[in-house]
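hi! just following up on the protien thing from before. the input was this:
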Amino acid sequence: MRKSIFLILCLFLTINMCFSQEVIPLWSDKIPNYQKSNEVETQEKGDILWIENVQEPTLEIYLPTKRNATGKAMVICPGGGYAGLAYDWEGTDIAKWLNAKGIAAFVLKYRLPKSKAIILGHKAPLQDAQRAIRLVRHHSEKWNVLKNQIGIMGFSAGGHLASTLGTHYNEDKNALPSTIDSLSARPDFMVLVYPVITMKSAYTHEGSRNNLLGNKPEQELIDFYSNELHVDKNTPPTFIVHATDDDAVSVTNSLLFYQALEKEKIYSEMHIYPKGGHGFGLAIGQGHLETWVDRLSDWIESLK
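and the predicted 3d structure came back as:
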């Protein structure tokens, strides 16, 4: 009887290990722009897993089988208005879909700017996104990834972070001297899903702006984080999707960024759906909106 129980327990543990994902710290040693505090990370599991007060940023690793692997990779930035992270809805669920397409996926649990553990709030998300790209590039051989096929994907405020990385990847103030941090942080392509783009008051998402920059930001910060102003010839190829009836983040955000990409002749594709609102994720069960991931799959396949 004891032997049977032991075998069942071993089987359970084996199955659990097969389906568990590796989570690694983003920073192996000292975290830049960090100070000690009494703050504690919180995770609330309702319809989605909602995370606040991130203390130790991490990457959760999802790898396809080697037989299916395309060599492409994606770092995923969940949204949450820079107040929290919709970690599974716009993170791990997306990673699983990408794996089914042969794409390695890395869910970024990034620091949130209002955390007491951050010295200068607006810098921390970008520092974490830069490090995430560099970390994947550093371990590319281990994770069966091509160094020049690493993208960034973001939803809502995570889309703002992704587009900030795509336009400010060379912003290296406060970076730590190391082999990893000497690598390029430029993503090879970007995917922006109902993204916040601008910090200008006419079209921005006020909650994201206030959380990132404070209630009365200086014009210099507003301009710096209005990413439509910083597109140039080196901005990565970009895929954008948004819904016209998004009453949280105006579709104008995506239009402004696409116009800037078009001006610089950046290889890009944009899909604007009439209905979908905000935060539709994979849009399962939402009619033809659900096909946006098919359009994304086709676009990623077109990247050579």
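Residues 26-302 form a domain with the Rossmann fold fold (CATH 3.40.50.1820).
The first helix runs from residue 2 to 19.
cheers
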